[in-house]
Request: fold
Amino acid sequence: MEDFLLIGLIIFAGTFVNSVAGFGMALVAMPFLVSILGLRSAVPLMALVGFSVLFFLSIRFRRTLSFKMVWRLLVSSLVAIPFGVQILAKVPETITLTFLGVVIVLYVVYRIFKLPMPALSNPNWAFLFGAMGGLLSGAYSTSGPPLVAYADARRWSPDEFRSNLSAYFLSNTIFTIIVHYFSGNLTDLVIRSWLLALPFMAAGLAAGYYMDRFINRDRFSKIVLALLFIIGGRMAFSWIF
Reply:
């Protein structure tokens, strides 16, 4: 029971951070969930939690959801997701955790230093970025970093960013869950953890929306990124320590 309470608190923290900072739910929650459940249970659990959050957000932003600009991302992502799930099943956990740590560190460096992406005028680049997102989604339930980079390279406006990526993440997460189901990863432990975490998720979203008016978002984001850098660094070099 203590583990389920701890899982709930981790989900609360992840959704709270995402509500205030606008990013980081999976990146914040995954390293801690892995330490409790192991990678092969934490990944499908995060996919279910991500779907739950996206479901509520899709209701909120239903008028701005647009699939027209993200179909290339979706097609390549859906092709790559099963391969990501196979990585989760067949590659040693030490290697996959190290790679996840590297992804987190690179994402933090990208966000902190606001590294400019070269402008991509050709929309077919979406196939490459979508495939990377699909691999990360299947293996880690963290498809965000390549998609954020692609949105930056395409110079999407804030409204386009919100509507396009909401449409992408919702479809991507649904397919990821389906693949995990047929791969046998949605175990009783995963389903039970998800159901028990739902109230914590709702509380995290509500608390984030409420506290957003009192918190300096830029400062909060920098603190979160600094913590993610430490967490990602420890994961990337866990084989040394």
Remarks:
- The radius of gyration is 17 Å.
